[in-house]
Amino acid sequence: MTIKRWLVVTSLALCATAAHAAWPEGPVTWVVPYPAGGGTDVIARTVASSLEKKLGQTIVIENKPGGGTAIGASAISRAKPDGYMVGTADSGTLAFNPSLYKQLTYDPSKFTYIGGLARFPLVLAVPANSPYKTVNELIEAAKKTPGKLSASSAGAGSPHHLALERFKQLTKTDIVHVPYKGAAPALQDLIGGQVDLMFGDLGSSLPNIKAGKVRVLAVTVPERLPLLPDVPTMAQEGVGDFVAYAWQGLVGPAGMPEDVVKKLDKDLKDTLESDEVRKKVEGLGVEIMPMSGPDFKAYSDKEREDWAKVIKAGNITLQ
User: Fold this and answer.
1) I need a surface site. Which of 128, 153, 167, 187 has the fewest CB within 10 A?
2) How many distinct structural domains can be found in the chain?
């Protein structure tokens, strides 16, 4: 081989090596479509702090709240598909918004689905001094006096609101929805007795449950919760088809390299299933939800289909 040819071959080999350098070579940005300090942000930071050890690079959390998660989702969808920007997409982003809004600035089908993250169990709670001790007593009261009972939520289109709508449709009851600007004020008015019930997330409700300020009638996931072992599920209370909880996973822009997705998928699953992360997440009243990318997409598609029926039946629309 001549020196000239050797130089050409060597140059091409070096270029090929550079083009296929192992990912990641620098920091990875993780977009969170909510403000810092909230449940979604805490989960992202908890997982990222362990995940970055596997990646060997820093993960930078970038909060992009607003628009019912659309601002963050749009930023992810428009990112360069090189694996250096990914982000949290939740039940609102992927399942609710397509039916709630007439137009979206992103397309749920165009994301690269990387894997599941966590689910946020909901609880059906009433004030501590409520006369209702069981779900059946609550349903009977709602049917006896339609429109008299009221339920607070974190806002129109929130998981709390849509859980209420699914409950009303399954039980054929008329309960007035009272939306608030966030879960905290909705919970405070429940404690104060301004409303009769609330489907609240376990994480934010737990301190008040432990303090005896609210009474939990049922949990909205298929199995009893370790943190509330004495509280029945909706199925055990006779509302058999009722399941409702918030959930989230990790997505990226369409067209991410297959090897990058596979690595992220595996490292994310391993991170979630580690004892350290599992204990931290479950301590927040949240459950880990490890899924492969394809499984998470299939799950999201099915949830979008199911909740579209609830939203349509409830005639719920947001601008």
Assistant:
1) 128
2) 2
